[in-house]
């Protein structure tokens, strides 16, 4: 009987040890698939039918965010849900559009470097953040003005701004997520592109 208990404990320990690796691998695969699906939406109408129904539903109303200084490029999904936050960045208020008011985008800090908002605290004033909207082909360029840390209950960062702004929000420190790291950028230009 002792050997059975020992075997169960050993199997449980191995499972607990391997689960984070499994989660990171499956999460990474879904993040990559979603990014490729977003590229398909942006590049050619001919490739859009190849999207599976789940990808198509997730990407409905999505925009793309690029921060070259930290090597981040990925979709921003229209709604904030636990499932969406696990694989992408999300708009805090789905009705907000780039170039209007204070567009707030939230994202987790994955423990895998380069994934989601893992490196958001490395963004500095002067860095460029670009939003591309595949719905109309427009591109919006923002420049980071400031960054700071707030408590989770401080929602003043979501208040309207006098000029079109972008507010990026993630947890910090990465180990305990007890605060929120905020990056605020201001719109400097927008350009329309012909939709294919």
Order of helices and strands: HHEEHEEEEEE
CATH architecture: Beta Barrel
Number of helices: 3
- What is the name of the CATH class? Mainly Beta
Taking the alpha carbons of the first and last residues, their distance comes to 68 Å
CATH H level: which superfamily?
Sortase
Number of domains: 1
Largest sheet: 8 strands, mixed, barrel
CATH structural fold name:
Sortase, Chain: A
Q: Tell me roughly what share of residues is in helical segments.
A: 25-40%
Low-confidence stretches: none
Brief descriptors of the model:
196 residues, alpha+beta, Sortase, Chain: A, eight-stranded mixed barrel, 8 strands
Give me the secondary-structure topology.
Layout (H helix, E strand, L loop, with lengths): L1 H42 L9 H6 L4 E5 L4 E6 L4 H6 L1 E3 L10 E5 L21 E6 L4 E13 L14 E8 L6 E13 L5
Overview of the structural elements:
With 196 residues, this protein is an alpha+beta fold. The chain contains 3 helices and 8 strands, in the order ααββαββββββ. The protein has a single domain, classed as Sortase, Chain: A, CATH 2.40.260. A hairpin with a 4-residue loop joins strand 1 and strand 2. The longest helix has 42 residues.
Concise overview:
With 196 residues, this protein is an alpha+beta fold. Helix content is 28%, strand content 30%.
């Amino acid at each position: 009987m002792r050997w059975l208990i020992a075997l169960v404990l050993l199997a449980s320990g191995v499972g607990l040890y391997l689960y984070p690796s499994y989660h990171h691998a499956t999460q990474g695969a879904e993040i990559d698939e979603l990014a490729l699906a977003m590229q398909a939406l942006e590049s050619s109408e001919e490739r859009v039918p190849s999207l599976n129904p789940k990808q198509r539903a997730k990407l409905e109303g999505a925009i793309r965010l690029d921060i070259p200084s930290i090597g981040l490029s990925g979709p921003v999904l229209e709604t904030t849900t636990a499932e969406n936050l696990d694989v992408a960045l999300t708009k805090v208020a789905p009705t907000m559009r780039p170039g209007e008011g204070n567009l707030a985008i939230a994202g987790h800090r994955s423990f895998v470097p380069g994934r989601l908002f893992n490196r958001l605290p490395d963004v500095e004033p002067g860095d460029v953040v670009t939003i591309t909207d595949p719905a109309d082909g427009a591109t919006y360029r923002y420049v980071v003005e400031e960054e700071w840390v707030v408590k989770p209950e401080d929602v003043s960062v979501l208040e309207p701004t006098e000029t079109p702004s972008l507010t990026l929000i993630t947890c910090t420190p990465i180990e305990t997520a007890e605060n929120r790291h905020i990056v605020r950028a201001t719109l400097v230009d927008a350009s329309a592109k012909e939709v294919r």
